[in-house]
Amino acid sequence: MSEPYQTIRVEKDNGITWVIFNRPEKRNAMSPQLHFDMDDALGALAKDDETKVLILTGAGAAFSAGQDLKEYFRETANNPELREKSQAASNRWRWHRLVHFPKPTIAMINGYCFGGAFTQVCGCDIAIAADEASFGLSEVNWGVIPGGIVSWNIAEMLSHRDAMFYAMTGLPFDGRKAAEIKLVNYSVPLAQLREEALKIAKVLMEKNPAALRATKEAVRHVRGMNHDQAQQYLAAKLSELVAKDKDKGMQKGLSQFLDDKSYRPGFGSLKN
Ligand code: ACO
């Protein structure tokens, strides 16, 4: 397919849409143009029926080396209009479009992942890394804090000890360590990473899309609620799902298990 984007590639393959940061010569650092491209792409893909699962990764040796220190910071310092526009796009695609993407999202961390790039790792529903990937909260190494929303993300995702250790030392760590501290679900050798991402994507595509969307919203939103609020919210969320699900997945699932005895929900998905 022809690409309307300068800094990313969008590739569609049987329900799986790959969104690939494509500035390998700059280690996929996030320039203003990359933010504009991602903002447009995620807006369009959210409504795209061909996209059932989205996988976010990087071309070449990097997932992303974080914000582009030259183009995003230095070159916008005297251009408040571009700075504001870039910042708005940067925040919108990572804090809103990605976090609230209506289909499942997988971050596939193939290499370098620094600073601001943690935001999109934490914004995806699932994350897997290459054992050989190199992560780092490098902000402190050049004299700033993990800003944007990075400190919030690591405080949510990691233990307090690990968040503080890596934010304060700026020490890099590999994919195995990222899995151990639960920044990612797990890691595999780089040579197997793509196959592993495809395997997860295929598992997700067997599920009822409405149930998946409601599930990701539910799990993400209950984090900030107390016990009673979560009970009320989840009851309303289930009613919403049953009312909105045009495929009537719940009724199908009950009937296939209780009447046809054609599947066991404990071991896999209903037949669509
Ligand atoms: N911003 C701008 N340019 C970058 C960035 C970045 N974040 N990362 C890499 N580049 C550029 C380099 O300037 C270089 O450009 P050039 O060829 O025009 O000189 C090119 O990408 C390749 O970089 P190298 O350093 O030569 O590549 P190497 O593979 O040796 O190292 C690494 C890769 C470790 C990622 C290194 O480039 C690096 O430390 N980058 C900065 C990482 C960082 O701290 N990111 C910012 C986090 S803070 C935030 O996001 C708010």
Quick structural gist:
With 272 residues, the protein is α/β, with parallel strands linked by helices. It is built from eleven helices and ten strands.
Explain how this protein is built.
The protein is α/β, with parallel strands linked by helices. It has 2 domains: 8-205, 2-enoyl-CoA Hydratase, Chain A, domain 1 (Alpha-Beta Complex), CATH 3.90.226; 209-267. The chain contains 11 helices and 10 strands. The chain has helices at residues 32-46, 69-73, 80-97, 117-123, 150-157, 160-169, 175-180, 190-205, 209-222, 227-244, 249-258; strands at 8-13, 16-21, 53-58, 62-64, 105-109, 112-114, 126-130, 134-136, 173-174, 186-188. The strands form 2 sheets. It has a 6-stranded mixed β-sheet with strand order 1-2-3-5-7-10, sandwiched between helices. It has a 4-stranded mixed β-sheet with strand order 4-6-8-9. Helix 1 (32-46) runs parallel beside helix 3 and helix 9 (209-222) runs antiparallel to helix 10. The longest helix has 18 residues, at 80-97. The radius of gyration is 20 Å and the shape is globular. The structure holds acetyl coenzyme *A. Residues 26-27, 29, 65-70, 112, 114-116, 138-139 line the site of acetyl coenzyme *A. The site of acetyl coenzyme *A has 15 residues, from helix 2 and strand 6.
Question: Sheet with the most strands?
Answer: 6 strands, mixed
| Domain unit count | 2
Work out the strand percent.
15-25%
Give a count of the beta strands, DSSP E runs of length 2 or more: 10
